[in-house]
Specification:
about 425 residues; alpha/beta; 4-stranded antiparallel beta sheet; 15 strands
């Protein structure tokens, strides 16, 4: 067989590597405490497990068979009921919602369904690492605009300090611009975009006839007094926005791999076509269980006992504990306004870079920390394009969505580390 003829398709070139595989394998090899990758290491709430158990023991055989391609009927009704409230408009359950294999699946369908070769897609850096490969695999051209800190020397740096340069962003819009991806709250930074920032983006999109892929998987993880604003609710934006959500982030069950896309039928139809010819449908028992969960949350919407309200309150002390720990060894945490990640500045640490090693400082530091301290994180430059990685060479991402016992182990590592300083 001709190895050259049967090699990886050209459209995949440049997208082969995965930071998750590389650093996950390293953490496993070194038996390091992994506080880098973004998943809970504790059981989901009892009512979540009960819903899945109820469906698994159902006497209805239909829940174990294929369901409607674009979303299980009971689930899309629940999503319609919820998002009609959140979007401040009626959301058609059959024409304006797609249930996908995770938010990943919704993003993939959006790119494959709406981006043509040569289309430009604006990405705000730092961005989740799948964005750029998805643009390229669709034949699109990524156009990068980095978020930058607006304050220096702040005693308690915040994700709110970071924003885009308005002139720079405006300069990137042109007749070739097809879409912009807005991740709100942002992963890895935890930035929650303000109304003024979203209005500026929306005005540019309307002026240049550009669509928005709004990745809102951390929509329920916004810490007071900040508020999550859906860009689709701004004037003139519903018809040009695909809003994407995640069951894994909403109910702390990342292994369920269910997500959804919500938007106007003319745009959403493109995603549905990709989905029906790829995954076709999602697991019916999981969709049925997720419908039960949303029905429950709708019955206590905005009440103190709502999981949407409880989760962010439970995460606040974890966030603050992580910030205190990192500060103890000389890192400078950037306190997030949303999400469950924390980026920390390592520039003050006495860490010597191997000049012969082509890897960036953050990559070298995380590998050293994983091997020598048995404390694993993710280098933040993984969330930047090749040309802008220098902007993040002193930043590292940690995850605080961890059990208290895990955070206590992290504290023990930090205490021992501090003794060596």
């Amino acid at each position: 067989m001709d190895g050259k003829r049967h090699s990886i398709a050209k459209r995949l070139e440049g997208t082969e590597s995965s930071v998750w595989v590389e650093f996950g394998d390293l953490a496993d090899k070194e038996k390091a405490l992994n506080v880098g990758q973004g998943y809970p290491d504790f059981f989901p709430p009892q009512f979540v497990a009960d819903a899945l158990r109820q469906i698994a023991s159902s006497q209805d055989p239909v829940v174990h068979q294929y369901t409607r391609s674009y979303g299980h009927p009971r689930l899309v009704k629940a999503l319609s009921d919820l998002y009609s409230i959140l979007m401040k408009r009626s959301v058609d359950r059959n024409r304006e919602i797609l249930v996908s294999v995770g938010a990943y699946g919704a993003l993939y369908c959006a790119h494959q369904g709406l981006i043509d070769p040569g289309d430009e897609v604006i990405l705000l850096e730092p961005f989740f690492d799948c964005y750029e490969p998805m643009v390229r695999q669709a034949g699109g051209i990524p156009v990068l605009v980095p978020l930058k800190p607006t304050k220096s020397g702040s005693p308690v740096p915040s994700s709110a300090d970071w924003t885009f340069d308005r002139d720079e962003l405006e300069s990137k819009f042109n007749p070739k611009t097809k879409a912009i991806i807005v991740n709100n709250p942002n992963n890895p930074l935890g930035k929650v975009f303000t109304l003024e920032e979203l209005e500026f983006i929306a005005d540019l999109c309307k002026r240049h006839d550009v669509i928005v892929f709004s990745d809102e998987v951390y929509e329920w993880l916004v810490y007071r007094p900040n508020k999550h604003i859906r860009i689709a609710t701004l004037p003139g934006m519903w018809e040009r926005t695909i809003s994407i959500g995640s069951a894994g982030k909403t109910f702390s069950v990342t292994g369920w791999k269910l997500g959804w896309a919500i938007g106007p039928e003319p745009l959403l139809r493109a995603l549905c076509i990709v989905h029906q010819n790829c995954n076709y449908t999602c697991p019916t028992p999981l969709e049925e269980a997720l419908a039960l969960l949303f029905e429950l949350e709708l019955s206590r919407f905005s009440a103190p006992e709502s999981y949407f309200e409880q989760l962010r309150e439970e995460l606040l002390p974890k966030r603050d504990r992580m910030a205190a720990m990192l500060s103890d060894v000389g890192m400078v945490p950037i306190v997030p306004d949303g999400g469950y990640f924390m980026v920390a500045d390592i520039s003050l640490l006495d860490f010597k870079v191997d000049e012969k090693n082509p890897e960036s400082r953050d990559y070298q530091f995380v590998k050293w920390m994983t091997v020598e301290k048995k404390f694993a994180a993710i280098p933040n430059s993984a969330f930047y394009s090749k040309g802008n990685k220098k902007l993040s060479e002193n930043l590292v991402r940690f995850c605080f969505m961890k059990d208290d016992s895990t955070l206590e182990k992290a504290s023990e590592i930090i205490r021992e580390w501090k003794k060596t300083l």
